Structures are given as C-alpha cells and as structure tokens.
Amino acid sequence: MSARTELEVLRPELFWFAAREDAPWLADPGDGRYEHARPLRWPLILPLLRTTTDALRAGAWITAEDGTTFLPPVDLGQLTVEEQWTFVMFFHDPIDVDPWDDGLSDGRHRTWGAWGADPDLILPLRSRLLADAALVDDPVYVPPARRHEYIEAYREEANEGLSQLAQSVRDRSPRYVAGLENLRALTD
C-alpha cells in the first residue's frame, strides 16, 4: 500500500458508531489464531482510525462515477502491512453487528485490540440488519416468494432495536437511526 491511500468504504450509510459500553458482546477472543503475528502498534493505528471514523460520521465520503465510495486519503506509510490491513478492514470489510446482537461472527480481534488500546475510542461498525435488509430485492439472497416474510422480520427487528437503542448511540449515529426508522416503516 502506498503511503497516501484512498480508502474505499463499502456502504457508508449503513454504519453506526459505538463506544465500548455499547458492546456487551465484546469478549477476549483468546483463540490463539494470531499468536504467530507480530503485535500491532495500536498507538500508531488509533489516530488514523479516529480521523477516518470522524470523516465517516460527518458523511465526508466521495462517490465515484462507478458508485464506489471513498473516504479522504490517509497516510499509512508508518504502519506495517499487518497494521495497514487491520486499519483498512474496519472500513473495507466492516464489522457487521447491531447493538442488540449477542455476539460477533467477525471482527472480535479488531474490536478487542482497538478498545484494549483505548477504551474511550468510538469505532465504526456496520449494521448487520441494515446490510441484510439492503438485499431484500436481490433474488439471490431473498427468494421473491418469501420477500414479504423477510420484510416483516426486518421491520420487527428494526422496531425492537429502536425500542432499546441507547440515547448515546442515537446521538452519535443519526444516519443509522434514520435507516432503522425507514426499515421499520418499509412496506411490501
């Protein structure tokens, strides 16, 4: 990766922004998968993560003619390849989770490492529910004959999620709240 990198972000409108206290599912992954890897230098990654998360929160992405979205370029020159990969994956292969979920299927090491280095950090997370619901009209993911039941399930989950969403998440993530409200009102 070159020192100055344009950062592609997939579906920026689906992100919400979490503080450590918004993540009751956070647990030490301690599975030994990365024991062979060099430790990440989180003090070098965190300033880039903060700046880029702030840009994403502010809606400061650029959409190319082909629909690809990019955040402002960042200088990754001081990071190792593993550190660059870890940083980029927060945006290019985001952690899909909602505040009410019981756990993570991916991203446990990233969240544990970042919040371990700075418990006050705000992390960008992509809504699993909104990402799933965005595929409701794709017959590869949702059989047309079952579209109605998928919409109903998405609406119910959005309604339940909104009923328990912390005010701090609402304040930090207005696009996310709007997405959930739109989903709750979705009709067949």
Short description:
Helix content is about 40%, strand content about 10%.
Architecture overview:
The protein is an alpha+beta fold and 188 residues long. 42% of the residues lie in helices and 12% in strands. The chain has helices spanning 42-57, 81-92, 108-117, 128-133, 147-164, 167-172, 174-184, and strands spanning 4-8, 15-18, 62-63, 69-75, 123-126. It has a 3-stranded antiparallel sheet with strand order 1-4-3, covered by helices on one side. Strand 3 and strand 4 form a beta hairpin. Helix 1 packs parallel to helix 2 and helix 5 packs across helix 7 (174-184). The longest helix has 18 residues, at 147-164. The chain is globular.
Quickly count the helices: 7
Distance between the termini: 44 Å
Strand order in the largest sheet? 1-4-3
The structure class reads alpha+beta
Segments where pLDDT lies below 50 for 5+ residues? none
Topology, number of strands = 5
Mean pLDDT: 90
Share of helical residues: 40-55%
Major β-sheet, in short? 3 strands, antiparallel
Order of helices and strands: EEHEEHHEHHHH
Share in β-strands: 5-15%
Sum up the overall morphology in one term. globular
Rg, please? Answer: 17 Å
What is the chains' assembly state?
Answer: single chain
